[in-house]
Amino acid sequence: MRTVLTKLGFYVVTAWAAISLNFVIPRIMPGDPADNLINQFHGKLSPSAIRALRVLFGQKDTGLWHQYLSYWHSVFTGDFGTSYAYYPSKVSDVLGQSMYWTLVLITACTVLSFVIGTGLGMLAGWKRGTWLDSLVPVTTFLSSIPYFWFAIIVVLVFAITLKWFPLSGGYAVTETIGFSGGFVSSALYYAVLPALTIVVASVGGWLIGMRNMMVTTLSEDYVRLAEAKGLSRRRVMYHYAARNAMLPSLSGFAMSLGFVVGGSIVTEVVFNYPGIGTVLFKAAQSADYPLMSAIFLLITVLVLVANLLADVAYVFLDPRTRES
Fold first, then answer.
1. Average model confidence (pLDDT) for the chain?
2. CATH superfamily assigned to domain 99-289
């Protein structure tokens, strides 16, 4: 229990530092959303109109400390003001509309690629030297291909040439968003190509990492002792070798889950998928600092929570972490 509380205190301090940096960085960058909008009018706005724009975008004439306290109030209330790129929508509304798409697609693909890659890596490490080792160079080659290039090839082959799947979007324009059978089937149909791109490009990293750790773990004394005791090969593989070999992959998986909200930006942009990755890309193009700040904050918090859960899981999976 003391170990868990110590880690929790560490992550609380880390969260405070990360959130504070998220407040400072946009404010030391040149320009802001109001300036970009003002520059578009080439000096045609009156001073009162300029002040009104700054107030509209939450840039009141207050001190930095007061802005910092207001920022923490926004963190706890979830009110980050008005989005510049999606004006006059609130930042919270934009995130709420796009988060659903990213959570469903990217989370499912991340879990699927982790399960497939870790499972194949476990088998390849257990049966090293067999035909399973041929999966390593193939998946490594696929994972080394840039996301955007692989996504473009997938679109060219399956959407343009074969016309099996739609070119872009998240659902058919004839469907209404809801939990109806038509909308769900349409959303799944449109998600096939983005999901294929993410899974194929991610499996290789999980496979080679698990395979190498499995080979290293098999040379440990406790694995040899389990084999010498006459335990079944299945029990040795799962309970002794794989359980310890997958601990490093567990940290990587937690990091991947934490970055789910950020989405696979390139993949979402190529497929024009209505997720947070596309929203972040448009926010960066429009210098929408309130929206970018909210997305970065969300990513930061989720990464910290995912790593905390991974550390807690380590405590229960590996007794050595509980030693003083």
1. 77
2. MetI-like (1.10.3720.10)
